Amino acid sequence: MDLSRNDGGAISTDGELCRRVQAGDPQAFWELAERYLPLVRSRAARFAGDVLDAEDLEQEGLLGLLSAARRFRVGGKASFGTYADVCVRNRMITSLRQAVRQAGGGGQPVSLNAGEAAESFHAPAGGNPEEMAVRTEAYEALVRRIASALSRREKQVLLLYLRGLSYAQIAKSLGLTEKAVDNALQRARAKLKAELQE
């Protein structure tokens, strides 16, 4: 899962794609998203239930993947795949807990599969806690902006596209024309690009 070919035929590592994401290249995130979509789907299927369905969780998982790409540091102890897995899982668990609270579940913990305890990351050695708090706050603001920037239709089209469906399949699934699917996908890409570059 670590390597892919870029447009020039050269192989891009996860680390190279992360550097490009951090530099504001939205195409690099699309490449990572396609590469790690099976992971996101697997986690979403595992956690889906009455509180949140798989589609909602996949969306949260993609936001977790974006977080992983924006924060990953090449040369660290963990591979990007390991780091992404934890970020995706933590994002989904956080969303489930929030949904349970909003649904009146109070402080009841979300039941996880055996061995699926949420992991937390600590500041890197020498990291300033204030800087980490500012970065976390900035990231959460970005996630909120992305979530609010996309319309419901754009989110639906984007998720189906990332699942590997063709324009024709998406159009049939949502009762749209292929042109409407293309337009929604182009709008979503433009909005995501704008949010990533801010």
In short:
The protein contains eight helices and two strands, in the order E-E-H-H-H-H-H-H-H-H. The protein is mainly alpha-helical. The protein has two domains: 1-107, Rna Polymerase Sigma Factor, Chain: A (Orthogonal Bundle); 150-198, Winged helix-like DNA-binding domain superfamily/Winged helix DNA-binding domain (Arc Repressor Mutant, subunit A, Orthogonal Bundle).
Question: What is CATH's topology name of the largest domain?
Answer: Rna Polymerase Sigma Factor, Chain: A
Task: Compute the average pLDDT.
Answer: 75
Number of helices: 8
| CATH H level, superfamily name of the largest domain | RNA polymerase sigma factor, region 2, helix turn helix motif
Strand tally, please?
2
Percent in helix: 55-70%
Backbone structural class:
mainly alpha
In CATH, what is the class of the largest domain?
Mainly Alpha
How far from one another are the termini?
Answer: 29 Å
Strand order of the largest sheet: 1-2
Major β-sheet annotation: 2 strands, antiparallel
Q: What's the SSE pattern?
A: EEHHHHHHHH
Report the sheet-strand fraction.
under 5%
